[in-house]
Amino acid sequence: MTAAVAVGVLVATAVHLLLQRGQLRVILGFVLLGHAVNVLLLSAGGLRRRTPAFDGVGEEVVDPLPQAFALTAIVISFGITLYLLGLLRADGPAGDDGEPAGEDESADDRSAGEPAGDGDGR
Amino acid sequence: MILAAVLAWQGVLAACVPLLTRRLGRDAGYPLAAGFLLAAGLLLWRLPVLLDGREVALRWRWLPSLAVSAALRLDALALVFALLVLGVGALIMAYCPRYLGRRERHTGTYLLLTLFATAMLGLVLANDLLILFAFWELTSVLSFTLIGQTGASAGTPAVRALLVTSGGGLALLAGVVVLALDLGTSDLARILAEPERLVGGPAWAVGALVLVAAFTKSAQAPFHFWLPGAMVAITPVSAYLHAATMVKAGIYLLMRFSALFGGRPAWDLTLLAVGLSTAVLGAFLALRQYDLKALLAYSTVSQLGLIVGVVGVGTPASDAAAILYTVAHALFKATLFMLVGIIDHEAGSRDVRKLSGLPRVMPATALFTVLAAATMAGLPPTIGFVGKEAIFEALAEAHHVPWSGPAAAGVGVLASVLTFMYAARVVNAVLTGPLRQPGLRGPRRSFVAPAGVAAVLATALGPSVTLLSSLVQRAANDARPQGEPPYLAFWHGFTVALGLSALTIGVGALLFAFRARADRLLCRIPTTASLADRFESGRARLLHLGALVARPARAAGPAAFLLRPVLAVPLLAVVAAAQLGPLPPLVGDPTRPGDAVLLVLLVAALAGVVTVRSALAAVSLTGVVGLLLSVWFVTAGAPDVALTLMLVEVLTTIVVMLVLRRRPSRLAPRGSPRALLAGVALAGATGLAAAAGTAALTGRRDLSDPGRFLLAEAAPATGGSNVVNTILVEFRALDTLGESVVLAVVALGLIALSEVGRDVRTQPAGTAATDPVLVFAHRMLAPVMLVASCFLFVRGHEEIGGGFIGALLAGTAVGLAHLAYAGAPAPLLGRLHPRPLLVAGLLLCVGVGLAALPWGRPFLTLGKVGLPGGLALPFSTGLLFDLGVYLIVLGLIVAAVRRLDERPRPAVTGRRR
After folding, report:
1. At B866, is the secondary structure helix, strand, or coil?
2. Do the Cβ atoms of B749 and A113 come within 8 Å?
3. Cβ–Cβ below 8 Å for B668 and A16
4. Best residue in A80, A82, A97 for a mutation probing chain B (most B CBs within 10 Å)
5. Do B411 and B306 form a contact (C-beta atoms < 8 A)?
6. Of B501, B519, B538, which one is at a domain's C-terminal end?
7. Which residue on chain A is closest to B703 by alpha carbon?
8. Is B259 part of a structural domain of the chain?
9. What is the average pLDDT across B149-176?
10. Alpha-carbon distance B630 to B640, whole Å?
11. Does residue A120 or residue B94 have the better pLDDT?
C-alpha cells in the first residue's frame, strides 16, 4: 500500500505545481510526475520480491523488466527536464517568477542581442 | 541501364550546381545547358531501337513486399517529352546567365531548375504508378519553391499554385491506389496493355481522378486560374515550367491513360468539352490582357486546352496531332517568354501600350518575336502551321455524337482566330511606333541567342516536318496502339484543313484590321469575379475556421493546456471504477517496515515543496524527494534505478543552480485564492485517482513471464550477470538506441537554443569571479568522479553501473566545474564540446549495430565477437554500444550545462557582482 500512497501524494503535489503560475514550478511538477511514474513502474513488477536481479530466478528476486523501463523513463525525463530548463533560460526573467527584475540595466540594449535576453544584472 | 545513367547524370548535375555557381557565378547556366544536351544525346542514341517498336526498360525491385519496383521505361512517347524537357531545359539554362543579375550566385535557382528537369524526366520515364506519382508531386513542389523564390509578393500565387496542383496530386494518388488495388499491380505498362481488365466503378473512379489530376496540372478550366498567378516567377521559370514542360505533364498523363480509357465515351467527350472550352476561354481572356506575360499565360491555358481537346478525339491522327502540337507549343511559347523577358529586361516594361519602336534598337529580338508569334498564330511555313493543320484535320474527324466533328472543328477555328488576334497584338506592339525611350539599348547577342535558336527551329521545322514524322508516328502508336497514324508532311494538297487554316487567317486578319471595334466588343462581354479571388476568399474562410477550432489551445500560460489532460485522469478513474470487475487478491505482502518511515519523510518534503516561496528551497526539497525515492528503490531491490535516480537528482540540482544564479530567487506569486483552491481540489482528485489506480492494478500477480525468462536467460545468453543492464544494452538495445537518439535530439535543441544568441558566447577567462570553495571541491572531486565514472561504466555488465550511470557521474563533474568557475572556462572539463560527443556516440551505437549485418545477424545483435584466427575479443560488443550511450548522455549534459552557463552579454558580465 505504501507505493500507492507514494504515487498518490507525488501526483497530487505535481499537479498542484503544474497548475500554478511560474515556469520553475511547472518544471518541478514535471520532475515529481516522473518520480510518480517510476514508483508506479516498479510496483507494477510486484513489490513482494525485493532481491536485486543478479543471480537467476529465485523466490525473492525482483522482476527486472520494470526496472529497465524505469531506467529508461528516468533518463528520458531527465533529458526533458534539461530542455525545459533551457527554455526557462531562454524566456528570461520577464517570462517567469514574477518578481520585477530590480534594476534592469540591460533593458535598453536587449533588443540588439540574445532574444533570450536574460539580463537582470544580478 | 541508360535510363538510370541519364537520371543519375541529372542528379550529378544538380550536385555540381553549388560548385559551378561558386566558380562561375551566374554563368553556371552554360555548363548546365551542355549537361542537359548530353543527357538528351544519350537518350537520342536509343532512337533507332525505339523506332523499331521496341522499348528501353529498367526494373529494380524496390519494395518487394508492396510489389513496387523502381521501374523505368523509355518508349517513343516518353522520348518526345524527355527531349522537350532536356532540350527546352538547355535553352533556358543558356538563357539564365544573361537574365539573372550579375551580383548573386543564383545557386538556388539553378539547383531547383536542374532538380525540376530531373523530376520531369523521372515522371515521363516512370513505369510504376507510385514512381510516377512521386515525381509528379516533386514537380509541383519544385514549381512552388521556384515561384516562391521571387519574393514576398509571390507568396499568395505560389501557395495557390501549390494548393491547386497538389490537390490534383492527391487525386492522382487516390487514382493510383484504386488502380493498383483493383488490378493487383502498379506496373504501368502491364496496366495499359490490358485496358479491358478495368471495368465498372473503379474504372469510373480512376478515370475521374486522373482527369482531375491532369486538368489541375495543365491548367484546364475550371482549374486554370493558378497559372496566370504563377507568372510572378522569374521569366526562365515561367518559360520552362509554366509554358514548356510542367504544364505538359497533364497532357502526358492524359495521353498515357488514353490507352486505358480512350474509346470510352465519357472520357473522350470530357476531354473534348473541357479542352475546347478552355481553348476558347483562355484565348478570350488572353485578348483582354495588356501585360505581355499575362497574355502569354492565358495563351498557354488556351493552347493546352486545344491539345487536351484533340487527345479526346481518339484517332491515330489526333494522337499524332496532339504530340506534334505539344512540341510546337513548347518551342514557340518558351521562345516568346524568353523574348518578353528580354524586352522587359531592356525596356523595363511588358505593357503592349507602352512598348514602341523596338526594331530600331533590338532588331534581332523583334525578328524572333515575329517568327515565334507567327508560329503561335499558325502561319505557314512554321511548325505552328503544320500543327494547326493536323489539329483541324483531327478535330473534324471527331465522331462521338452526330455533328461532333464539324462542331469541334468550328470551336477549334474560333480559338485559333482569337489566337491569331493576340499573336497579332504582340507583333503590333513589338514592331510599330516611334522610339520613345532615348536611352534604350539592345540586348547582348548571348542573351538573345537561346530564344533565336528556338524561334528559327520553330520556323524551319515546318517545311522539314518529315524529320519528325517517324518519331511522332511511333509516339502516337505508343500512346495507344490502334493503327498507323498518317505521315506528317508540310503540304497535303487542298484539304479541308487547309481551308480552315485559310479561314482562320482571313477572319483573324480582318478582325485585326478592325481591332478597335473588336476589342470594344470583347470588353463588353461580362465576366464573373475571377476564380482566383473566389479561391482566395474560400481559403481565407477555411483558415478562419481553423483559427476558431484552435482557439481553446492558444492560451498564454501552461496551466490552461495542462488542465485538460490532468482533468482526464480523475474522469478516467471514475469510468474505470465503474467498469472494473472483482480484482484478484494481492500476492504476498508488498510492504516492508522501513517503507512507512520513508513515506512520512516523503510527505513532509512534498509539503515543503508546495509551501516554500524561495526557489532555492523548492529545488532543494525536490532534490530531497528524489533522494528519498532512491533510498526506497534500494530497499525495493532496484540498485541500478536508485543509483541512476540519485545521480540524476544531483545533476538536476546542479543544473538548476546554474539557472538560478541569474534569476530571481523567489518563486512567482501564487494566483488568486479561487484559482488556488480549484487547483488544490483538482490535485487532490488526481492524486486520489492515481493512488487508487496503483493500489487496484499492481501487485496482484507473481513474476511476469518476460521477467522470468530474462532472469533465467540473461546470464547464460549475454555473459553479464546484471540482468537490468543486459536488458538495456542487449535484449532491448533498439529501445535504448531510440532513447539515446531522443537524448541527442534534446541536446541539439539545447545547442540550437544557445545559438540564438551566437554573439554572446562565453566570455574569456578572468572577467568572472570564481568561487574558491567550489573550485577546491571541484579540484578534489572531479578526478575521483571521472575515475568512478569509468569504473561504473566498465563493470556495468556484471554489477551495478553501465553507460547511463557512468555518464551521469562524469556529467556531474562537468556541471560542478561550470558551477565552480562561474562561466569562465573551467580547465579541461569546461572545454568539452557537446557536438563531437553526440556524433561519436551516435556513430558508435549505430556502427556497433550495423556490424552484426555482415555476419548475417539482425541489426544490433550484440555479443562476444570471434576474430579470425580463433581469437576472441575480451569483451562483448555490448560494451561498445554502452560506450556510445555514455558519450551521448555526456554530450547532452555538456550541452545543457554550456547552454545554461552562458553569459548573457558582455555588458552585464562586468557588473555581475
Report:
1. strand
2. no
3. no
4. A82
5. no
6. B538
7. A63
8. no
9. 92
10. 10
11. B94
Considering only CB atoms, which chain A residues are within 8 Å of B588? Answer: 46, 48
d(CA B63, CA B354): 58
Task: Report the SS3 class of residue B187.
Answer: strand
Q: How many Å apart are CA B603 and CA B535, to the nearest integer?
A: 61
With b for 16 or more beta-carbon neighbours within 10 A and e for fewer, the A66-82 pattern comes to bbbbbbbbbbbbbbbbb
Question: What is the distance in angstroms between the Cα of A103 and the nearest Cα belonging to chain B?
Answer: 12
Question: Is B383 part of any domain?
Answer: yes
Q: What is the pLDDT of residues B214-257, one digit of tens each?
A: 999 999 989 999 999 899 999 999 999 998 899 999 999 999 99
Q: Which residue of B has its CA nearest to A59?
A: B703
Nearest CB partner across the interface for B904, out of A4, A71, A118: A118
C-alpha count within 13 angstroms, C-beta hemisphere, residue B174:
18
Is residue B26 within 8 A of residue B97, CB to CB? The reply is: yes
Give the Cα separation of B728 and B886 in Å (integer): 13
**Domain boundary residue among B488, B507, B538?**
B538
Q: What angle do CA B520, B522, B525 make, to 5 degrees?
A: 115
In chain B, how many domains are there?
A: 2
CA B879 to chain CA centroid, nearest Å: 39
The SS3 call for residue B73 is: strand
Domain encompassing residue B744: 720-913
CA pair distance B321, B317, nearest whole angstrom = 6
Side-chain half-sphere exposure of B592, counting CA atoms within 13 A: 15
Rounded distance between C-alpha atoms, residue B787 and residue B810, angstroms: 9
Q: What does the pLDDT average to over B146-160?
A: 89
Is there a contact between A5 and B562 if contact means CB atoms under 8 Å apart? no
Residues 6+ apart with CB under 8 A from B890: B807, B810, B811, B814, B832, B837, B841
Give just the sign of the alpha carbon dihedral B720, B724, B728, B730.
Answer: positive
In whole angstroms, how far apart are CA A85 and each of A88, A117, B750? 5, 15, 10
For residue A80, which residues of chain B lie inside 8 Å, CB to CB? 746
Contact B590 A46 (CB under 8 A): yes
Nearest-CA distance A104 → chain B (Å): 10
Q: Is B874 helix (H, G, I), strand (E, B) or coil?
A: strand
Taking contacts as CB-CB distances below 8 angstroms, the residues of chain B near A78 are 648, 651-652
Sequence spans of domains, chain A:
15-48+60-92
Rg (CA), chain A: 21
Question: Rounded distance, CA B509 to CA B518, Å?
Answer: 12
Of B559, B663, B899, the CB nearest to A86: B899
Those residues whose C-beta lies under 8 Å from the C-beta of residue B570, and which sit 6 or more positions away, are B682, B685, B686, B688, B689
Mutual orientation of helices B639-660 and A23-44 as an angle, nearest 10°? 180
Phi, psi of B488 (to 5 degrees): -80, 135
- Contact call for B609 and A70, based on CB within 8 A: no
Task: Name which residue leads in pLDDT, B204 or A109.
Answer: B204
H or E element: which one contains B404? Answer: helix B404-431
ipTM of the complex: 0.80
- 3-state SS, B365-397, equals HHHHHHHHHHHHHCCCCCHHHHHHHHHHHHHHC
Select the more confidently predicted residue: B659 or B210. B210
Q: Which residues of B touch A120 (CB under 8 A)?
A: 662-664
- State residue B825's pLDDT score: 66
Tell me the pLDDT tens digit for each residue of A2-59: 899 999 999 999 999 988 888 888 899 999 999 999 999 999 888 888 888 877 677 7
Distance CA B848, CA B860 (A): 7
Buried b (16+ CB within 10 A) or exposed e, B420-432: bbbbbbbbebbbe
Residue B478 covered by a domain: yes
Beta carbon pairs, A and B, within 8 Å: 347
Q: By three-state DSSP, how is residue B876 classified?
A: strand
